[in-house]
Write a structure and sequence with these properties.
This is YeeE/YedE family protein. With 142 residues, this protein is mainly alpha-helical. It has one domain. Helices cover 70% and strands 0% of the residues. The protein has six helices and no strands. Helix 1 crosses helix 5 and helix 5 packs antiparallel against helix 6. The protein is globular. It starts with a helix and ends with a helix.
Amino acid sequence: MIMRLLSLYLIGLMFGIGISISGMANPAKVLNFFDIMGAWDPSLIFVMGAGLLVTVIGYRLVLAQDAPRYGDRFRLPTKRDIDPRLIAGSALFGIGWGIAGFCPGGAVPALGTGRAGVFIFIVSLICGIFITKRILHNQTAP
């Protein structure tokens, strides 16, 4: 159990360091990627490309194993259909990212900067999660 928690911590630490080094904890850098008619900054493409390359290689290496190191089996998503909830969630994610300059994964390491905007984003994100859970729960309740 301790080794599992330590490995999770180290993975998160590496992600946070990568986000910080790449500048993606700075919302202005992300927002400049979307500003194609102004101060366009294409560096986000390279960060995403590097992340995609590492993911493709990592999944191939990890999934070649019979089971994960700290678990009995792999727990991968099985749902593959594109439905309205997926489209709406993707659109909301993109709109929020474009407005705030943060995605959830990049905002968590940015908490270390102490900027108020990061905390406002994280609190808004958590509120949105609870509101969505409540709405979805009410839709499925008899």
